[in-house]
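Reopening this ticket.

The earlier resolution said the output was attached, but the attachment link was broken on my side. Pasting everything inline this time so it's all in one place.
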Amino acid sequence: MKGQFEAIDALLATARQEAELPPAEQRRALREALDLSRAQVARALGVSPSTVGGWEAGRDPAGDVRERYAYFLDGAHAKLAGLDAARQAETAAPTGLPHPGPATSGGEAATAAEQPGTADQPHPAPEADDVEDLAVPQPCVLCGQPARHQVAGFPQHLDPAQCATTAPAPAAPAQRPQGRTAQTVQTVPAGRRVRTVSDADPIAAAVAEALATHEGDVEAATAALVKRAIPDAMALLDNSRKGGRYAIVAHPWIPDILRKPSARGADQIWEARPKWTRPELPAGTHEVTALDINGAYLSALKTHLPIGQLEHSTGNHHDRRRAGVHLITPPAWEHSAYLPNPIGNRDEPGPLWVTEPTLRLLLRLSGPRYGLCEPPQIHESFTSGATEGLLEKFRIALKDAREQALAEGDEVTLEYVKAMYSKFVSTMGESNYNRELYRPDWMHLIRSQAFANLWMKAHKAHDEGLSVVRAMGTDELHVIGDWRRVFPEGRGVFEVKVKDVYTVGAATADPGAAHESAD
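Inline output:
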């Protein structure tokens, strides 16, 4: 009997009344009165900006997150009350909490921030430098002197010796728009790049400067920011590495397998890019949803990267403390009827050079948890001591800027940030457009990590009962079934958005053909 009462006492001790929350319209008013963005509040609470927008539209959180949100709102109310008291002491004029206007609701703002659109389509990263001859010489993007070639659409000299070594003089600072706290921005020459320096937020400062320079013209400011994305990304990388444990080796010795035989040729590294279509569909007619994976290359910056010069080794052994490229004989794959091969489409059998993410994926799938294949056989490797956090501060700075831009509907910053990480990845190899960093091994590893991430999403979809129809590149996954119970929808890095919806059935033998006709 005593034990039963103790159980009831324990139950009552754990029971608690949910924290009270103010009405939805006051939640948004409290946040905006403190000049806080949804992204800032979301980071503090450990949720997404769209979730905060939903709370401000009328949805209520539950559990521990409700307690944290109530604590934030109570603190915001107290903060504003203190500010009001200070103003009253200074001006002897009574002030109060802001009241939200009836014309705009938090729900409308949240819906607008979450709507997918063409502006959020990821910038494609070229497979290699597209070198073209120019009929009429155009100013080189690096030095401004006439150049007879363009690389990836940018006029520039192919020979560094032909490129002028003097960086352009920094432009005089333009008057900044009123109504926003101006960031102190200084442009200083550093080699062949012009670095944007800001003690606070270099991304926000660059956007403010571009808008001021182009007198608020959004299209012109965006174009200017995209054009300077590479030097700005390198400056942000330099800034993020201050105080880091490891120094980046920007121009190490590279083995021949990582060198292009010609400007238009490719090296010997296989990136395992998926291009897979399910050979047979389930019986009946089905609606297929093409999902777009947000920020694929941004997420892939978190991968094991070799720190220093690659060193050669032989033997069927993998050291998880190192990373690089490996010559392997891949295992047989017997699941192509419903899942893509982890090494992608390959016509020729036998050994091939793969990257660290591909090797780790194969080893993971061959382990006891998955048991989908045999372990790959490793013949030789070029590796160095590695860390998964080498670009982590750089990645987080870009991710935070992207999330805040989405929350605030700031398409200029969104396009600028996307250009920074996509062009950073695509030009860190043998590219004339980025001479500050020569790490083709990193380029291959980051790309392969994006492919490996997509493969794991395909496996998750299959494991949750969805039928995977296609997996393409780094960011496209086609599925049949209720995908919203598997993947969160939105524009955030950890969310997906709908790219297309089409119908397939018994009359259509090739799902790829059905998708093309639907386009």
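Reporter confirms the inline version is readable. Residues 194 and 508 are 55 Å apart (CA to CA). The two ends are 71 Å apart (CA to CA).
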